Amino acid sequence: MKTLLISLALLVSSSVIAQDKVSTHTPWTKEDSAAINALALYPDSIRLLIFQACEYPAIIVNVASLQRNSSTAFADAIGGYPKAEQEDIWNLSRYPGLISKLAANNSDDQLTGILATYPSDIHDIGLKYAKNNQADLKKVDSIESQANTQFDQFISAYPADVQQTFRTLLQYPEIMSLLNDHLSLSVRVGDHYKRDPQRVIHKADSNHDVQVKQNAQEVQEWKQNIESDTAAQNELKNAANAYADSNGYNTGETDKPIDENMVANYTCNPYPYWLGYPSWYPYAYWYPYPYWYDWGFYYGRNGNMVVFGTPSFYFTNWYFYYPRHWETFPHLGGAYIHHYYGPRRPYTENSLVVRNWVQNNRNYLPNNFVSSSSARVEAIRQVGQLHVAAQRSGVPENTSARNEYLQKNADRFPALNNKPEQTSIPEERGMQNVIQHPERQPAVIPSRTEPNVNTRTQRSVSTPTYNYNNINRAQSYHQSTWEHAQPTRQYSAPARQYSAPARQSAPAPSRSGGGGGGRR
What we know:
- Helix content is 56%, strand content 1%.
- The chain is mainly α.
- The protein has a domain at 229-422.
- A two-stranded antiparallel sheet has the order 1-2.
- The longest helix has 31 residues, at 197-227.
- The chain is globular and about 70 Å long.
């Protein structure tokens, strides 16, 4: 992975040296490297659009400014509702055109006809707000409509192919966020793509193939890890039910077998770019996935456990945030340690959560914690017991107080290092606390495929469809990688608005090498 990141960081500089014989690039930050590394997971047609968009940083900046205004207006418009009702409206917004249709003066028969084309789980919510809160729906519809109108007005002065590029990328809200958050990256990528598009495309294609292979290998290793450890497998199932329960599902619902065709063709509508994702999330959460996606497995037709990937960041963060989970599901924790401290040591946000937990508790862990599976499991259990017991005894939540509590009660925790100052587990420099208080994930349709109801004008690239059995699970990877790779400096839109270029009478030069294949 380190070699891959280095090669990606050199992508821009090598094209400059090849053409100008003099390197004019500025050094890439680690955030830039991580961000462009994530870009490689998109299909080639989307990568090409991203490179083209990077040639127009003025559009990126102005569109981001418009998005901040519209999303703030939306959050303010529904801010008076209780959080549960805000979640309802956020959920309605995920289905393109739905709020606009519900905001019109419709009869009961018309509302029934409108909702018939949307998932059944959204029908009651849609009827409720269409009948009782129509004024607020009209306000939300107005906010989104105004944003679309301003966007169309702004890009109207640009060539048709540029307009097409940005209209398509609006369907990928996390891409638009990334391009603005990493504006220096966008500018540099756009500049070097303009200089030598074939080289940039070729390098991205090569990295895509490498990362797909690496991701497939990681999934296979995690699958073998879980399937070969019965205790870890059972605890993953039990923890999965607890996670689903904490997010509004019930065990009877989540234990049901899922049709494999539904899993393979599940389509997830993101929150719309102009309205943003729920304002209370401390991290970007554009795509509300079903419970089984966060687990990394589902129950097949015969009730068997079908592992299709590693658990999501949200599930992993939920597990490592609560000490009770370490005490209750220690074999699952051991599986995490075995996987993310193994020979390959995959670099994802899951690995950061796991390694962050080890660093936070390194003073208490025995010297053979990483190397010995039996020591690992019991140490995880007793670290959980230590934290819970200390909290119940009113011990302040700081390292020195907990160390003192452990030394006074060493006989209760024989698997732990009772002399924290003598720990031999090395400190990993540069680690930061990535474990956050888990937010309740929005409950989404548990038992059927969400239909593709995108009412926007059809573009050259199809509406995003996520096949969760196609190994790369790119969207989740992007969320975890990009959110942890925040820019060193936050860029804000300048007060001065960039002017659009003069209209071109001749069509823009065509780009080659993009290829097709819009599906993962």
